[in-house]
Design goal:
By secondary structure, the protein is mostly helical. The protein has 4 helices and no strands. Among the domains are: about 40 residues; about 50 residues, no CATH class. Helix 3 crosses helix 4. The longest helix has about 70 residues. The mean pLDDT is about 85.
Length: about 130
């Protein structure tokens, strides 16, 4: 039988240990590659989701601007009476203060027939009582 010296046993032990460490390193490398691939897939999915959300946000921003413009237009129509409405309200107020049809023609620029009609309509309830 061959007798091995201590040196041989140490070399055999070191080689076995090196093979074990090498196998462990190969297994770690494979696991690392799988993890990296899963992370790449996750990042790709997140990028796609981010792009979809960004496109949606841009679309919603456009829609909000459109709606805001429409709301502002509607508010302007509601809060700002037309020139005719403003003239009518001013004339009605003057009639309430006792103005005549001639006063309305002179001060509000109304046609005589329109002024006379407004005066007769506004003064009717006073005569009814």
């Amino acid at each position: 039988m061959i007798s091995l010296s201590l040196m041989h046993w140490l070399l055999i032990g070191n080689m076995g240990l090196m093979l074990l460490v090498g196998g462990f390193m190969v297994a770690l490398k494979r696991q690392q590659q799988k993890d990296a691939q899963r992370l790449d897939e996750a990042v790709t999915g997140l990028r796609q989701a981010h792009q979809a959300i960004s496109k949606s946000a841009v679309g919603m921003g456009r829609k909000l601007r459109q709606l805001d413009g429409r709301v502002q237009q509607a508010e302007r129509r509601v809060t700002m009476p037309t020139t005719d409405e403003a003239t009518y309200h001013q004339a009605a107020r003057l009639v309430g203060l006792g103005a005549s049809a001639s006063d309305l023609v002179d001060n509000c620029g109304m046609a005589r027939g329109e002024a006379e009609l407004l005066v007769s309509l506004k003064r009717q309830p006073a005569h009814a009582h």
